[in-house]
Structures are given as structure tokens and as C-alpha cells.
From TrEMBL:
<feature type="domain" description="Gfo/Idh/MocA-like oxidoreductase C-terminal">
    <location>
        <begin position="188"/>
        <end position="441"/>
    </location>
</feature>
<protein>
    <submittedName>
        <fullName>Oxidoreductase YteT isoform X1</fullName>
    </submittedName>
</protein>
<dbReference type="InterPro" id="IPR000683">
    <property type="entry name" value="Gfo/Idh/MocA-like_OxRdtase_N"/>
</dbReference>
<dbReference type="InterPro" id="IPR051450">
    <property type="entry name" value="Gfo/Idh/MocA_Oxidoreductases"/>
</dbReference>
<feature type="domain" description="Gfo/Idh/MocA-like oxidoreductase N-terminal">
    <location>
        <begin position="53"/>
        <end position="176"/>
    </location>
</feature>
<dbReference type="Pfam" id="PF02894">
    <property type="entry name" value="GFO_IDH_MocA_C"/>
</dbReference>
<dbReference type="InterPro" id="IPR004104">
    <property type="entry name" value="Gfo/Idh/MocA-like_OxRdtase_C"/>
</dbReference>
<dbReference type="GO" id="GO:0000166">
    <property type="term" value="F:nucleotide binding"/>
</dbReference>
<dbReference type="InterPro" id="IPR036291">
    <property type="entry name" value="NAD(P)-bd_dom_sf"/>
</dbReference>
<dbReference type="Pfam" id="PF01408">
    <property type="entry name" value="GFO_IDH_MocA"/>
</dbReference>
Length: 475
């Protein structure tokens, strides 16, 4: 029963599971088999639990705040009963919104695990380097875990999280939100239905966006590997996970990768530029100017991301944003930061049976994270632009268009990633309420396998060599 719980959402995962059992040294017959006729990611109403699923939010920043809004949309399905965050503003915001009792408001997650279990699940939304410890501790206390991606920043820590959840018989959902996007799910359905025949090649682009990259990966939380993680893990573990998912039961056998920090370096600082945008005489000609990214948006009444991120202790207004740019990290010249993560990276993969895949992650784009994918098969070509899927059939030479409806509410904290944030929460809460891990699309086994692939790709980049997956030490 334990293993069925954690290991086997789908029949297609069975092969992955057997490999993973070896990695974790678990007997494969402990794993059980996927339920017949199961169809995940389609959303399901809760039937078992009559009272709302009780959750604790650990890390009430941008993501924790967003996910907690599921309780506002569906109070009958989820209740936020606890919060932990060292930032008073962040935890108070959630306490007020969800009427959390004083005794359940903490400035550190450790205080919660010292207490008797008082909720069904935990949403772990702390910074990248603070995932493993709370994930393992909460799993051991018997909480079901929704864990932000990346799972953790080392192979050992990712593996330890999966092991703790397995041994504690709790569900783990990693926030690979794209897996819950109805269009992404549709792509998998079309592949599995054979509409393009055998999948031969997958080409996938992650356009990070020029100001998004400057915000998050040059000035912000993910700029420096020692403080967070390498860019491929922080940004594109989603994308490798999608490629791995679309490749199906085929294992990736080899990977190579190249990438570096381009442009955002001291030597590219324009003549006459100051160290801070607020004092810079050439700021007007700079697309990465903090005045344009934050202050101009604020002046137009935009107080959401990325403006909200730079105001850590209060709601944004013009004075607070101005002060943050004068003194804080987000007002720095992009050519004078301590950034060291890649701004562009390519990953080439070969899967069993000769399926090849190529991922490009690039900072310098107009689109903000609007992925583009082309999947080439023996009978047709499938392309995806984030809005619709087109399938060109080689035999009939006709193109069919596919869309997928999302019932995610608009203009809430959960409308992010095209509504996929909502669908992730919907699936996790349903899984807990129904005691049914098959509703989770991003469970431990596939997620760990795709994370391992990310570590292999980064090792290839660092060593300038082709890496045979699973062999040798990972990055
Ligand atoms: N799934 C996605 O698409 C997606 C998107 C963005 C970020 N993320 C990931 O989500 C995580 C959180 O990102 P974010 O943008 O919300 O960051 P954030 O900085 O806004 O929030 C993190 C919060 O954790 C709090 N925290 C720090 N130490 C803590 C502790 N000991 N106990 C409790 N709380 C603590 C911080 O004070 C902060 O409020 C990161 O791992 C990030 O990589 C995922």
C-alpha cells in the first residue's frame, strides 16, 4: 500500500519506477502497479474528505502566497491553518487573509515540526537551498508535501527527499506546474494516441524574457549559484521534465550541454553608466534599466510581479519602490552585479531508440517564458506556441489544430503559468482529499529522474564532454 501511494501515478511510469527502485535500493515488487484506466491531470472533485484539506504554508513569499489563494477560491476544499516565514510582513499577510490562529504562525518551519501534527499537508515554498531539510522533516512527521521546484540543489538531497516521502508513506508533488497545463497534457495525449507516429525529435525553447532574466537571474534571488542553484536547474528543470515526459518510457542515455553568462558582465557596461540606475545618466538608453522595469510599471499602477518582489516589508508604492531602487539589490546596474548563472544554455539529449531532443534556454527574448515546442514524428509534425497545438499529417498533408480548455480563475494569484498554478493545486488538494496519489502528475519518481537528467546536463557543460546518463558523479 505504501509504495502504491507514492510511486505509481500512471502505467507509463512503471518502467521509470523500476529504474528508480534500483537507485533508491528499494525492492521493485514493493512498488505495485499503476491502476488500470487511470487518467491523471484531468482534475477531479474531492469525494472522500468532507472537511477542507488543512495545509501549512512554509515560505510565504511569492509562490507560497499564490498557492495559498486556492483556499480563498475553494474554502470548502482547502484551509490554510499554519504559516512560517521569517519575514513578518509575509506571514502576517497570510495570517490575516486566512484567519490563522496566532499559535500557528511561526518565523521558522522548524518550530512547526517540533509540534504535534496539526494539518494534512504542507506547501514548501522556501528558497531553493532551503527545500531538502523541511521536505524531509515534514514527510517524517506524516505531512503530504507539495514542494516547489527544483526539488533540491544536489542529487543527494533530491534522492533523500524521495526516500523520506516513500518511507513515510506520504504523497509528494513537485511544483512542475507546466505538467498541469491542459495544453501540455494534450500534447502527451496526442503523442500517446500516435497522431505523429514514432517520436523522432523534440525541439523545445524556453524564452526567459529580457527583463525577467535581469530581474531574477542578474539582480535577484537566482543570480548566483552559491546562493540558489545553476540556471538550468532553477529555470529549465521544468523544460527537461517536459521533454522527459514526452519521451515516455524511453530513458535518456547521453547528454551534452553548452552555455555561459553572456552580456551581463562588467566589460559590457556602457561608457558613463553609474552603478545604480537611479543615478545613471545613460539609463534612458538601457533596456535593463531598473527605473523602466519597476518604477515605470509602478507609475502605471502595476503592483504585482516583479514590482511586488522588490518590496519585502510592505505593499508597493512609489516611495517604497524608489527607496528599494536607491538602496536595494534591484536598483543595481545589470553590469555590476554578482551574477554567475548562465544566460543561455543548450542541452542535447539522446534517448533509447534514437529519439533526440534539443533544449534552448535563452535570456534575450521578447516572450516571457512562453515555451515553444516542435515534436517531429514518423507520421507528422506537432508544434506548440503556448496557445494552440498544430498537427501536420504527412499522409493527408492536412493540419489539425487542438486547444484545451482551462477552468482556472483569471486574475488570481493562481492564474500564473497560463492557469497551470491553479491546476497544480487542484490536483494536489484532490489527491490529499481522495487519498489518491494518481492525481499527481509530478510525483517523486518521474520528477527525480528528470532532475537527475538536469544534473547530468550541467555536468556535461562544466566538463565540456558528453555525459552517459547515470554514470559517474553528477554536477
Ligand atoms: N514552480 C514555479 O514555476 C516557480 C516559479 C518561481 C519560483 N519557484 C520556486 O519557488 C521557491 C520560492 O520562490 P519565491 O519566488 O516564492 O521566493 P520568495 O523569496 O518570494 O519566497 C521565499 C520565502 O521563504 C521564506 N523563508 C526563508 N527561510 C525560511 C524558513 N526557515 N522558514 C520559512 N520560510 C522561510 C522567505 O522569507 C520568503 O518569504 C523557490 O525555490 C523558487 O525557485 C518556482
Amino acid at each position: 500500500m505504501l509504495a502504491t501511494y507514492v510511486w505509481f501515478p500512471t502505467r507509463h511510469n512503471w518502467f521509470i519506477c523500476v529504474r528508480l527502485c534500483r537507485l533508491l535500493e528499494i525492492e521493485s515488487d514493493q512498488c505495485g502497479r499503476p491502476a488500470e484506466g487511470f487518467d491523471s491531470c484531468t482534475g477531479q472533485q474531492d469525494t472522500r474528505m468532507t472537511s477542507p484539506v488543512r495545509v501549512i504554508v512554509v515560505g510565504a513569499g511569492n509562490r507560497g502566497d499564490n498557492y495559498s489563494q486556492f483556499a480563498t477560491i475553494h474554502p470548502e476544499r482547502m484551509k490554510v491553518v499554519g504559516v512560517a516565514d521569517p519575514r513578518k510582513f509575509a506571514r502576517m499577510k497570510l495570517q490575516q487573509r486566512h484567519k490563522i490562529e496566532d499559535e500557528n504562525v511561526f518565523n521558522d518551519w522548524r518550530s512547526i515540526v517540533e509540534r504535534q501534527k496539526f494539518a494534512d499537508a504542507v506547501l514548501i515554498c522556501t528558497p531553493d537551498r532551503l527545500h531538502k531539510e523541511p521536505a524531509v522533516a515534514f514527510a517524517k512527521k506524516g505531512y503530504h508535501v507539495l514542494l516547489e521546484k527544483p526539488m533540491a540543489t544536489t542529487v543527494e538531497d533530491c534522492t533523500a527527499i524521495v526516500r523520506a516521502c516513500t518511507e513515510s508513506d506520504v504523497m509528494l508533488s513537485v511544483a512542475h506546474v507546466l505538467r498541469y497545463d491542459p495544453l501540455i497534457h494534450k500534447i502527451k495525449e496526442l503523442i500517446d494516441a500516435g497522431v505523429i507516429g514514432d517520436v523522432i525529435h523534440i525541439q523545445h525553447l524556453e524564452p526567459v524574457g529580457f527583463y525577467h532574466f535581469a530581474h531574477s537571474f542578474v539582480r535577484g534571488n537566482w543570480r548566483n549559484q552559491a546562493e540558489s542553484s545553476f540556471a538550468l536547474l532553477a529555470k529549465s528543470c521544468h523544460d527537461i521534465d517536459l521533454i522527459h515526459h514526452w519521451a515516455g518510457a524511453r530513458r535518456c542515455v547521453k547528454v551534452s550541454s553548452f552555455g555561459s553568462v553572456s552580456h551581463f558582465k562588467k566589460e559590457n557596461k556602457p561608457a558613463g553608466a553609474a552603478d545604480r540606475c537611479m543615478e545613471c545618466s545613460v539609463e534612458n538608453d538601457c533596456p535593463y534599466s531598473a527605473c523602466k522595469i519597476y518604477l515605470d510599471r509602478m507609475k502605471q499602477g502595476h503592483t504585482g510581479w516583479p514590482v511586488s518582489v522588490i518590496c519585502q516589508s510592505s505593499l508597493p508604492d512609489i516611495e517604497i519602490v524608489t527607496e528599494a531602487l536607491k538602496t536595494g539589490p534591484y536598483g543595481r546596474c545589470v553590469y555590476e552585479c554578482d551574477n554567475d548563472v548562465c544566460s543561455n544554455q543548450v542541452v542535447n539529449m539522446e534517448f533509447e531508440g534514437g529519439l533526440t531532443a534539443a533544449l534552448s534556454m535563452v535570456a534575450f527574448t521578447e516572450e516571457i517564458c512562453q515555451r515553444k515546442t516542435a515534436i517531429y514524428g514518423s507520421k507528422g509534425e506537432l508544434s506548440y506556441d503556448g496557445h494552440e497545438i498544430r498537427v501536420f499529417d504527412f499522409l493527408t498533408q492536412r493540419t489539425t489544430k487542438h486547444t484545451a480548455l482551462s477552468n482556472a480563475p483569471k486574475n488570481s494569484g493562481l492564474s500564473g503559468h497560463g492557469g497551470a498554478d491553479y491546476h497544480l493545486m487542484d490536483a494536489f488538494i484532490s489527491a490529499v482529499a481522495n487519498n489518491d496519489p494518481s492525481l499527481i502528475c509530478s510525483g517523486p519518481e518521474e520528477t527525480l529522474m528528470s532532475h537527475l537528467l538536469v544534473f547530468d546536463a550541467e555536468r556535461s557543460r562544466l566538463e565540456s564532454s558528453v555525459v552517459y546518463c547515470g554514470e559517474g558523479k553528477r554536477a
